[in-house]
Amino acid sequence: MAPLTLPFAIVNAFTTSLSGGNPAAIILLTPSQDAELTYDQRITIARNLNQPMHMFVVPQPSGELGVRWFTGVRENMLCGHATLAASGLFLNEKPGSTMYIQGADTAQSLSYTGVTNRLSGTRVEDNKVQISLDAAQVDELDREDARAVKLRAAVASAFGADVGVLYLGAGTGGYGTYCLIELDTEDIGSLKVDYMRLLESDFVVHVFTSRPSPAAREKGVTFETRMFAPDLGVYEDPVCGSAHGLLVPYWDRKLGLKGATMDSYQASARGGDLWVGLEEEKGLVRLAGHVVKVVEGTIMA
Questions:
Q1: Do 80 and 242 meet the contact criterion of CB atoms below 8 Å apart?
Q2: Nearest Cα residue to 81 out of 210, 282, 268
Q3: Is the pLDDT reported for residue 146 higher than 80?
Q4: Cα(first)–Cα(last) distance of the chain, in Å?
């Protein structure tokens, strides 16, 4: 059987830089290719493209876009940065491009249907793209809770015992594998992290946050963050969209902002800028940012 030839693009999300933000590989499939492509083939594509996330997109007759997200290790049920990257790509591709989707270039928003959730991507001001995610319900962990004891020990091993912890929380529902940790620091980006020690916790996605550094505060940054998920093969995520499902409600309530827009900075090596806010009545978090296409081509499967 002849191999499939699939168009793809690599797009950096939450940046205007070719070397910043979080890259995602967007692979465009027809419905017949989607039906033919196996789980193992998707993992192989992800390993060959070797990006933080790989998003397989299938235009549907309804106009919605079917999506699945993969790392080189496993399938993920949600990826915010890849969805924002795909939206910025499809909303701006023109007829003749291998990544063009009929009507997307004139649309105001795009709708995505995943295995367990639905998302959308919308044009907003200043050439940004905005997506909305479910706002997480995060339960603060009691100090004596067994998960808190293990998590606190893992954090001490990963960051060093001298780094203070101000808050430990556990995500629920669709965020049940996530935890949220506020560290007592104003320079989260400079902290050296032995991220493999986080495998000793009971969580998969470890979202760390802190108040901004003085330099970041001068630029209007509200909070800073880093994310580690070694169990998924994501040792440190350059910029994590889904983490903000936890971060935005936490900081909105802590600062009493009542839905006002906040500037979030992901203090990874690549760095990323997000404009975020809580829509509490809808139970949603909005994330906006820029995208940059850096590679396009075809891949065999």
A1: yes
A2: 268
A3: yes
A4: 11
Rounded distance, CA 208 to CA 225, Å? 5
Helix (H), strand (E) at residue 244: helix 244-255
Residue type, 276: V
Rounded distance between C-alpha atoms, residue 122 and residue 133, angstroms: 13
**CA nearest neighbour of 148 among 174, 194, 181:** 181
CA quadruple 142, 147, 149, 153: dihedral sign:
negative
Q: What is the C-alpha separation between 25 and 86, in angstroms, rounded?
A: 9
* Residues 6 or more apart in contact with residue 123 via CB below 8 angstroms: 91, 108, 109, 129, 130
Report pTM.
0.88
The Cα–Cα gap between 9 and 36 comes to: 21
Amino acid at 261: T
User: Residue 79 corresponds to which amino acid?
Assistant: C
Q: Nearest 10 degrees: CA dihedral of 221, 222, 226, 227? A: -130
Backbone angles phi, psi at 111, to 5 degrees: -115, 135
Structure confidence by residue, pLDDT tens digits, 173-184: 989 999 999 999
Residue showing tokens 């760390």: 208
Residues β-bridged to residue 164: 184
- Write out pLDDT tens, residues 211-221: 999 999 999 99
> How many Å apart are CA 197 and CA 204, to the nearest integer?
12
Which residues have a Cβ under 8 Å from the Cβ of 120 and sit 6 or more positions away? 109, 110, 111, 112, 131, 132
User: Domains of the chain by range and CATH?
Assistant: 5-134+289-300 (3.10.310.10), 138-282 (3.10.310.10)
